[in-house]
Amino acid sequence: MDNHGTNSDRPASDSGRAGQPPFLGLFRPRRGINPTFEGEEGHSKANIVLVTDGASIPNPQERRLVNAWSIALVGAVGSLIALCLLWPDPYLRILLYLPDGVVITFEITILSICFAVPLGLLTGLGRISRNRIINLLASTYVEVIRGIPLLVQLFYIYYALSRFFQVSGIASAVTAISICYGAYMGEVFRAGIMAIPKGQSEAARSLGFNRFQTMFLVILPQAWRTILPPVGNECIAMLKDTSLVSILAVPDIMQRARSFVGTTYLYFETYTVVALIYLIITLILSKCVSHMEGRLNYYDGK
Amino acid sequence: MFRSLCGGFVLALAIVALGGIAQAAEKYTVASDCTWPPMELLDDQKQPTGYSVDYIKEAAKAAGIDVDVQNVAWDGIFGGVATGKYDIVASSTTITPERQKQFAFTVPYYEVEQAVILPAGQSIQSLADLKDKKVGGQIGTTGIFVMRKADTGADLREYDDVGLAIQDLVGGRIDAVICDDPVAMYYVNKKPDTAGKLNLSYKTGDKEYYGFTVRKGRDDLVEKLNKGIKAVKDSGKEAELISKWMGDGK
Q1: How far apart are CA A179 and CA A116, in angstroms?
Q2: Which is it for strands B88-89 and B176-180: parallel, antiparallel or unpaired?
Q3: Which B positions 145-204 lie with beta carbon below 8 A of chain A?
């Protein structure tokens, strides 16, 4: 494989021509920052080049990414404001109808994150455990939960299990979402921990750390940097998936909107506002995640 | 030989297609949310049935049109008729001034009022007694509107369908359910797994009238259906349907 595709925008002398070793072609494009690779290459040497290059000098390609984000945000906020100013009758009325739904959506998301992240960590550790029973338990949990749609899990916990015990709508929503995302995050944690070179744990063990200390003092602090971006993404996905809980009569954004539509029959207007609100929230959150990611990669620049 | 076969095939296709078009001209699609027994429900073969479904079929027969009833989720049933996905909504839709602003209705075909269901052994005297209670209902139905208008300070829970609300009432997660009285009667008296566990405690006394809903501007269709409804009423078919679906409850 030669790298004509990736290097076609570079000067001919610089580009990986046919016959050149492929790794040269792989390294070169990264000098100009390519943020989509950032997560994957957290520990490769090329990352150092990338950050020293990119952090001080504004890079055109990076600016393009910022544009995609800011175009979306400005577009969403702008059109929401424009709609409310131009046609206050339905749009402002809809917007003022939804805020208590936003509170519920955030409440469910934050509570679910609080349970799902520890659950994911436990599952991830269980999946790499040498204890066969714990390993089997964690793996089975992941297999079972990943195979069942979240909507079915919500119905199952709220309606099916109500025969045995009764929990409120929000509690079942948080339980179902935490259990579901715990399984997905388990895989993220496992991958993050496995990505730390074996030498790290060998070095820690040879310095007299026990297995527990090795994991929590040496491996996890390093793995956290690779884990955080995908966990952040999972949290944003979680926020979007909370829209499913409206079927449990939980008054989140989606349910508030549906109940508004139920009286006014303004389908287009209401769901436009709802889509814009979700978009604005997730755009802000994804910026937060990328900011955090940048902070955590700080040491890569040294 | 082959050619004549082909020709015959094409001719047959054309006849079928033409026949289809000729038939489709008089055929209307009807949407019903089959989660509202005994007005609309699914039978054992998963086909829509119930009072409204039978009624629209009889009315259509009397008016000389053909209808095809489909099961459509309540949430969005009005959106579909507005965009022309189907022609008629026969789903226990109460004629309200708000709805009349956006849709056209036929003359009334049934009369109901709102009923509050409580667990067996409990009762209320008025809607105001529901203060601080958890009250369930189906999203976008007149039961919810009545509760909102009464502004009793109850905690309103809006479910996707009334069956889920009833299940939560039986399970004890909510304190009351509000819905149309025939539906309430069905759950309180007839449905095997809920009968005996519930008490129809209170009726608002404000009459509501069901009408078939069509898109604004389809006066031709409204006229046909009105003629059909009148025929069903005059022929005594309506009384037959009432005794079939409501039994001795009415």
Answers
A1: 7
A2: unpaired
A3: 145, 157-160, 164-165, 167-168, 171-173
CB B92 within 8 A of CB B39: yes
Token pair recorded at residue A218: 């040496």
Tell me the ipTM for this assembly. 0.77
Please report, as a single letter, which amino acid is at residue A173.
A
Within 8 A of A251 by CB-CB distance, chain B residues are 158
pLDDT tens digits for range B44-65 = 999 999 999 999 999 999 999 9
Bridge partners for B199 per DSSP:
B118
Q: Do B173 and A263 make contact, defined as CB atoms within 8 angstroms? A: no
Using a 10 angstrom Cβ sphere, with 0-12 exposed, 13-18 middle and 19 or more buried, the burial of residue B83 is exposed
Contact between B173 and A166 using a beta-carbon 8 Å cutoff: yes
B44 Cβ under 8 Å from any chain A Cβ? no
Contact: A168, B173; criterion CB under 8 Å: yes
CB nearest B102 (choices: A166, A255, A265): A265
Ramachandran region of residue A19, left (φ > 0), alpha (ψ -120 to 50) or beta? left
Best mutation target, A244, A245, A259, to test chain B (most B CBs within 10 A): A259
Contact indicator for B103, B82 with CB cutoff of 8 Å = yes
Indicate yes or no: pTM above 0.95: no
Using the Cβ of A263 and the Cβ atoms of chain B, whether some distance falls under 8 Å is answered with yes
pLDDT in tens, chain A (302 residues): 344 433 334 333 343 334 444 443 333 333 333 444 444 444 443 333 333 332 233 333 455 656 688 889 999 999 999 999 999 889 999 999 999 999 999 999 999 999 999 999 999 999 999 999 999 999 999 999 999 999 999 999 998 888 888 888 899 999 999 999 999 999 999 999 999 999 999 999 999 999 999 999 999 999 988 888 889 989 999 999 999 999 898 999 999 999 999 888 889 999 999 999 999 999 999 888 888 877 777 666 54
A165 CB within 8 Å of a chain B CB: no
Say if residues A86 and A155 touch (Cβ distance below 8 Å).
no
A169 contact residues in B (CB cutoff 8 A): 157
Chain B residue at shortest CA distance from A158: B168
**Minimum-distance CB partner of B140 among A166, A247, A263:** A263
